[in-house]
Write a structure and sequence with these properties.
about 625 residues, alpha+beta, 8-stranded mixed beta sheet, 3-stranded antiparallel beta sheet, 16 helices, disordered N terminus
Length: about 625
């Protein structure tokens, strides 16, 4: 995918033809959901761009992605794969805009908006020095997602004048190289004001003390008016991860939506949904849509379209009656319950039918895994499909279930009817714990006390993030059961990355630990060569699983940071972990669906003194 400015016209120079575009760089379609989505900045050579909203994308030929369960939960009609560039017509379906606007010249040290450098067409170059320009290192953003250039003029003049540029001087930007800190980054002005370093600009109150307020700008949305915003802006590094946090949702394709007539109709639903029965049957007949599906008729297609219409209508009515924040809180429960039931029930492979979900028990009995380790069920998920959609994004602070909808930045000017998404196919292993043994263990006073400590910290954080609103604040899921399942998933991923040869970043967890659910799904999370080649399913064979589980528990029983790790009263961000650190439990960000919080190794293996028993050490 190539973020491309719409024209190459520069002030003072002849304009290029309107159809001329410049290819700057390429990113994968999946990265437009996970890394460089709407509102994110991407550095290309010596320039920086901001991915524009989906309402500016050319999706006329974008591939639709069907996942009705997820679409209903997110209140949209469907999903689309980000459009690919069209080299023949020299255009790209994804648009980008230059940001930040401020650039500096490393030779003459001028700090100006890019357009004032009069760069040659197609290049970011100082017209005076012929040196490559450097995008501004600093931007400011607020927790409501607004973004703008750092106010260099106000910073260097310290509020002496009310209007930017009133002194008539030109700003300069230089680094004296004396240190690697912000103290060596100096901002000056030709009006004679003393140079000021960037030291202290990252303090929470630094901008507020200078009278700088959030301007409410949305530069990634074309013609978006500035909105009133009372949130204090914060200084951020342009390349910092705090500039863009994606708010993503995902779902596994499970029956009946992943097979049979539902799968046949899915690619054509956008065409069918507004047509009558006769038109649908005519299209099916003329396009020979069922040529390779002789078991179905035009009436079956009409019935499936009507079923989807009914589900979509019900989801729309529910969305109108439910606030966005409440829908987000219900998302995990409703989506995950359906997946959990399908995983427990299983779905055997059918050679006569193309399937996206195949879940079967292993050939050999689980034997001692049940008696010695407390596993009630092991299922080999030989095929699975996951759809991941980008709903919105956050800045400054990571997304939280308690966030107000105002804290989620929009990805389009109007409410979108579709969301960008991508799909991955893979495989996995589902493990369910013995409910009777689990119920006895999760009432142990030691485990209850440890879980309560984490839950209180998490509830406190959720309340703070919710702010002063009348909406109910979601409670923390940090129960002994959830901590156990989460830690179990992490130790298995770490072990399989060593024993099975998988990079930990290519494996992903899915925790079913709320209410009556008590299972973990570990599956491949990428669509590359570490995808569905049978290696993860092989780890679920009883003999191999028992060996890897025994090795994982032995490895988890001692951490190189012990006794500090195990005896920690609180660890991790905001004290949301106990015995968990980079040497024992933490995983790459792509692998953990909970951002490496709500972890406690003692839930699995207990404490060394035996006062707090682990589930697998009873």
């Amino acid at each position: 995918m190539s973020p491309v400015p719409p024209r190459t016209r520069r002030r003072g120079l002849p304009s290029a033809p309107a159809t001329t575009v410049r290819k700057l760089g390429e990113i994968r379609r999946g990265q437009l959901i996970t890394t460089y989505g709407v509102g994110a900045m991407i550095a290309v050579e010596n320039e920086s761009f901001l991915i524009r909203g989906i309402d500016s994308w050319d999706v006329s030929e974008a591939h639709p992605i069907s996942e009705p369960r997820l679409a209903g939960q997110l209140g949209v009609s469907g999903f689309r794969l980000p459009p690919a560039p069209d080299p023949e017509r020299a255009r790209d379906g994804v648009r980008a805009v230059r940001f930040p606007e401020m650039y500096s010249c490393p030779h003459c040290h001028q700090l100006l908006p890019f357009r004032k450098f009069n760069s040659p067409p197609g290049r970011a170059e100082c017209s005076t020095c012929q040196e490559n320009l450097v995008p501004s290192r600093f931007v400011i953003a607020c927790t409501h997602g607004h973004l703008e250039d750092f106010p260099y003029w106000k910073w260097v003049h310290r509020g002496n004048r009310t209007e930017s540029g009133a002194c008539g001087g030109r700003l300069t930007f230089r680094a004296d190289g004396s240190t690697a800190s912000l103290r060596s980054v100096l901002i000056g002005c030709s009006c004679g004001v003393e140079e000021v370093s960037m030291e202290g600009s990252f303090r929470r109150q630094a901008l507020r003390d200078l009278g700088i307020r959030c301007a409410g700008r949305l530069p990634w949305l074309r013609n978006a008016p500035a909105v009133s915003c009372q949130e204090p802006p914060r200084t951020l590094q342009r390349g910092s991860s705090s500039v863009w946090f994606p708010v993503m949702h995902s779902a596994l394709s499970i029956p009946p939506w992943s097979q049979g007539i539902a799968k046949v109709v899915a690619p054509f639903y956008e065409i069918f949904k507004d047509e009558d029965d006769a038109a649908i049957k005519a299209y099916v007949r003329m396009q020979k849509m069922l040529l390779h599906h002789p078991a179905y008729t035009g009436d079956d297609v009409v019935a499936e379209v009507e079923r989807r219409r009914t589900a979509e209508s019900a989801a729309g009515e529910s969305a109108e009656d439910t606030e966005a924040g409440d829908r987000a809180r219900n998302y995990r429960r409703e989506i995950y319950e359906g997946e959990y039931q399908s995983l427990v029930k299983g779905h055997p492979e059918n050679a006569d039918e193309q399937q996206e979900f195949v879940c079967e028990p292993p050939v050999a009995p689980i034997g001692s895994l049940q008696s010695s380790h407390g596993l009630a069920q092991v299922m080999s998920v030989k095929k699975l499909r996951e759809v991941r959609a980008l709903k919105s994004f956050r800045r400054v602070e990571e997304p939280s279930e308690a966030d107000s909808p105002l804290r989620e930045a929009p990805i389009s000017l109007a409410k979108p009817s579709w969301l960008p998404a991508f799909e991955v196919s893979g495989e996995g292993v589902f493990v369910r714990l013995d409910p009777e043994r689990l119920q006895i263990w999760e009432q142990e006073p030691g485990q209850v006390a440890r879980a309560t400590r984490i839950r209180e910290n998490h509830d406190r954080l959720l309340s703070a993030r919710a702010g002063s609103t009348d909406r109910p604040v979601p409670s923390s899921p940090a129960t002994p059961r959830f901590l156990l399942l989460h830690a179990l998933a992490h130790v298995l991923i770490n072990e399989w990355s060593l024993d099975g040869g998988y990079p930990a970043a290519s494996l992903r967890e899915r925790i079913y630990g709320e209410g009556y659910m008590a299972g973990v799904l570990v599956y491949t999370a990428t669509s590359d060569s570490a995808g569905s080649l049978g290696g993860v399913v092989a780890q679920g064979e009883p003999d191999r699983l028992e060996a890897s589980l025994r090795a994982a528990l032995h490895r988890a029983s001692w951490c190189s940071n012990d006794p500090l790790c195990m005896e920690s009263e609180a660890s991790g961000t905001d004290g949301l972990n106990l015995a968990a650190c980079h040497a024992c439990l933490l995983l790459p960000e792509t692998s953990c669906e909970n951002n490496n919080i709500l972890l406690d190794r003692a839930a699995v293996v207990g404490t060394p003194d035996g006062r707090v028993p682990g589930f697998f050490t009873r």
